Amino acid sequence: MKWKDRKFGEESPFIPAGPFKIRLPFIHYRFEWPDYVQGLLMCAVDLAAIPLLIELLGMPFEVALAIVLLNGIFYLLHHLLGDPTIPGWITPAIPLIMLYCTQFPEGPERVHALIAFQMTLGIFSILLGSTGLAAKVVSSIPSAIRSGIILGAGFAAVVSIFEVGGRFETFPWTISIAVGIGFYLLFSKHFSKLKTKNPVWGVVGKLGIFPIIIIAIIIAPLFGEAPWPTIEWGLISPDFMGLWTNYTLFGLGFPPLMLFVTGIPTVLAAYIVLFGDVLQTKALVKEADLSRPDEKLDFNPNRAHLIFGARNSAMSVIGPDVTMAGPLWAAMQVVVVQRYKDGRKAMDSFIGGAGSFRWGTNTGLLVLPIVSLLEPILGIALALTLLIQGYVSVKVGILEARSQSDLGIAGIIGAVLVIKGAAWAFPVGIALCLLIYGKDFFKNESDETFTKDLPLETKENV
Asked: How far is Cα 333 from Cα 85, in angstroms, rounded to an integer?
């Protein structure tokens, strides 16, 4: 059956393949050109991984570009295999992974540590997806520790920008102005009202952080913090040979087994924030599904685990990446959901919108004029991404706590995680929970910390 034959209330047509539902463009879903064009522009965010790889692993630009391109290809797997999402990085975990990797000297040892980390995370995700144990693993962790890990991720994101030698010292004016505008566009109640009153502002709001990146391209040269871009024509020249020779197990050999053991605490910390993305994906897909009764959307967390677990496992072998392979690019999922709500004429299928967007980002990564336009401010784009993520992680981390005691424990865990890493943060969190909660270690009891201002009848339902 082709996409045109889908009846009211049915799923988009697919080829069944075990837990997967294979869908091909133009056959099983209509290609959505507006989402494709937006993807061409938003590849800027994917490219922001390049300065991270250069800084952490000492990669040449062309080698880092090869990793970004490989990651982009794997992004396509989600919609092609039946996952109605726009995947992205595990953004909240990036500072945690950077902290972990910097414990090892730059060179083969640090690359081996990253390979072992990503491979462990991938295999762990596949195991949880195939057994359906994902929710049980996370729910078994006390809320104080979950809160502390997410808080720590937010703290680490901010620290990485403002620490001595951090990006703020290189781009103080650009980051200050761009972040100020970015927070206004993304989180301001005033701008939220403007979007509903003026369609122009509505379009700006749907573009996520892309308008901020365009502003940075202009501001950075004006303040002398980056050169004006030199536009080059043609296609990109990623260095796959340099990647596989110097940064993968093909050239460096298999990592020592001890690195798989030492990475376990940070892998677990990364998985905690990753699982938060899975829950957010489920909520956004449900919102889209309720808005369009003409199409049934099927999001299966276990299938998602299998896909991003396979992505991480594969990337650990052919191109280890500090951003990791995550289940969701939240900002763009929200943007596509909003367009999907406009009805079948605007977007026939959500799979079509999500897939077309990711085909667009992959096309943009290949086009040299786009890459060369963005190259001077990629470090700024990454700083903006991390600061925005820091804000979100701190907010989510606080809301993860169930009591004032949880908040106190979480604050200490977060601080220890930033200073000493996850290997110290988990034991400290466990010790504090045992000392404060004793036999009620796993109860996650709540007090009035988050409900003191609510009516009594509302409190009883919380």
From this structure: 7
254 by Cβ neighbours in 10 Å (0-12 / 13-18 / 19+) ranks as exposed
Spatial contact of 46 and 299, defined as CB atoms under 8 Å apart: no
Count of CB atoms situated within 10 Å of the CB of 405 = 17
Instruction: Provide the percentage of residues in the chain whose pLDDT is more than 70.
Output: 94
User: pTM of the prediction?
Assistant: 0.81
User: How far, rounded to the nearest angstrom, does the alpha carbon of residue 99 sit from its chain's CA centroid?
Assistant: 17
* Contact predicate 174/216, CB 8 Å: yes
Tokens 């909520």 belong to 283
Average pLDDT, the chain: 85
For residue 161, give the nearest of 179, 148, 147, 188 by alpha carbon: 179
Spatial distance between the Cα atoms of 299 and 302, rounded to a whole number of angstroms: 9
**pLDDT at residue 453 is higher than 60:** no
Reduced DSSP (H G I as helix, E B as strand, rest coil) percent helix, strand, coil of the chain, to 5: 70, 5, 25
The CA-atom distances, in angstroms, between 286 and each of 212, 289, 334, 342, 346 are 29, 5, 12, 16, 19
Residue 25 lies inside a defined structural domain of this protein = no
CA atoms within a 13 Å half-sphere pointing along the CA-CB vector of 249: 17
DSSP SS3 for 81: coil
In a domain, 231, yes or no: yes
CB burial class (10 A; 0-12, 13-18, 19+) of residue 59?
buried
**Strand, coil or helix: 352:** helix
Q: Note the pLDDT of residue 353.
A: 92
Round to the nearest angstrom and report the end-to-end CA distance of the chain.
46
Q: How many structural domains comprise the chain?
A: 1
Q: How many secondary structure helices (H) and strands (E) does the chain include?
A: 25, 2
Q: How far apart are CA 150 and CA 141, in angstroms?
A: 13
26 domain-assigned? no
Determine the 3-state secondary structure of 347 from DSSP.
coil
Residue numbers of the domain that contains 409 = 31-461
Q: Which residues contact 140 (CB under 8 A, 6 or more apart)?
A: 442
SS3 of 381, please? helix
At 49-79, the pLDDT tens digits run 888 899 899 999 999 999 999 999 999 999 9
pLDDT per residue over 133-171, tens digit each?
Answer: 876 776 777 888 888 888 887 888 888 888 877 778 888
Q: Which of 269-273, 279-283, 323-327, 438-442 has the highest mean pLDDT?
A: 323-327
Residue 23 resides in a domain:
no
